[in-house]
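agent> Task received from the user: take the single chain below, predict its 3D structure, and emit C-alpha cells. No templates, no multimer pairing.
agent> Plan: (1) validate residues, (2) run structure prediction, (3) serialize to C-alpha cells, (4) report one or two observations.
agent> Step 1 OK, no nonstandard residues flagged.
tool_call: predict_structure(input=
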Amino acid sequence: MITTTSWTVYFLRCSDNSLYTGITTDISRRIIEHNTSKLGAKYTRARRPVILAYQESAIDKSSAAKREYQLRTLPKSKKELLVKQYKMTQQVC
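)
tool_result: status=success, residues=93
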C-alpha cells in the first residue's frame, strides 16, 4: 500500500512585515505552532503573530524542500509579487 503525504511550501507574514519560508504536511497545525509554541521556528517566535501569506503544493518532501530553497533565495520584491498574485487568486475563489 502506497501512502501519499501532501506537502505545502509556504510564506508567513511576520509582525515586522518580513516573510518566513517553510514546508509542512499540515499548514493549519504549523501556523498554530509558529504562533503559540516552541515548535515554531526561532525566527518566527521573535516576530509573532504570523499569518499565512502564500502557499503552494508539492508532490513530496524532496520537491518541497527544493522549492523552499528557490523561494527563500528570491529577492523580497519577487516574494512580494508571489504573495500579491496568491491573494488575487484567493479573492477570485
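agent> Step 4: summary for the user.
The two ends are 34 Å apart (CA to CA).
agent> Done.
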